[in-house]
Design goal:
By secondary structure, the protein is α+β, with helices and mostly antiparallel strands. The protein contains 6 helices and 11 strands. The mean pLDDT is 93.
Length: 242
């Protein structure tokens, strides 16, 4: 609210109603607080990496035009240090891990978190495999400084291609699962506020004869935590304002 007021120029508004007029139009100002509750439901996803180094993400969630394919690709690619074209997302089959489905924003938040956790588990398994493999340059090295980037696993000054780790230790590929609990069963849900908050500021004109309302200017300021995709998030925020 403070940031929105500063950007909008809230302190320059005339505090007395109907005190500003431009021809036929009375000009007024208003603001409203916003909250989008986060609905958390049981969600699972798997991530599998084969000897070819391609990561396959699977969950039964659908993409109803909300960009699920895009954001899940981004989440997995970032956490596994892979180019986007080395990640394949497969959705909408009943034999895939069960998700919370699509709707509003909860599908993105729930499924992305499950995919992120599956990637975390996959990183741990790959690091364990390399650390215990005497043929690996990463043999015996601790995982604390590990970095996954460009299809390579780096620990300190040593590095090895992800494909080599998988091919030697998991010739059939390696798969891990990530999941989140229902909001009723997750203590973090009750202990922390994880909703999205916002503030809307508007300047409107009202015709003195017809009471017709015209929106002249509007500003929305939001605290949405991690943005999964800047383009789709901005579109969603503008859609909410509209």
């Amino acid at each position: 609210m403070r940031e929105g007021a500063r950007r909008f120029g809230w302190e320059r508004r005339p505090p007395r109603p109907a005190s500003r007029r431009e021809g036929q139009w009375l000009v007024g100002y208003g603001m409203a607080a916003a909250i989008r509750m986060h609905f958390q439901a049981p969600t699972k996803a798997t991530v599998r990496v084969g000897p070819d180094g391609i990561a396959v993400v699977r969950t039964d969630m659908t993409d109803i035009g909300t960009g699920t394919y895009t954001i899940l690709t981004q989440v997995a690619a970032e956490r596994l240090g892979l180019p986007l074209d080395r990640v394949r997302v497969e959705l909408g089959r009943s034999e895939f891990p069960v998700s919370a489905g699509s709707g509003g924003s909860f599908g993105a938040a729930n499924t992305s978190t499950a995919v992120h956790r599956a990637c975390e588990a996959l990183r741990e398994e790959l690091l364990r495999s390399a650390r215990n493999d005497a043929r690996s340059p990463l043999h015996g090295l601790g995982p604390e400084q590990a970095m996954f980037s460009g299809g390579t696993v780096n620990v300190g000054g040593a590095s090895e291609a992800l494909t080599e780790i998988v091919a030697r230790n998991h010739p059939e590929g390696v798969e891990t699962e990530g999941e989140i609990l229902s909001m009723r069963d997750d203590p973090n849900y009750n202990a922390y506020s994880i909703h999205t908050y916002g503030a809307h500021f508007a300047e409107v004109g009202v015709d003195v004869d017809t009471a017709e309302i015209r929106l002249r200017r509007m500003l929305g300021v939001f605290a949405a935590s991690r943005i999964l995709n800047a383009k789709t998030a901005r579109s969603q925020l503008i859609g909410g304002m509209t």
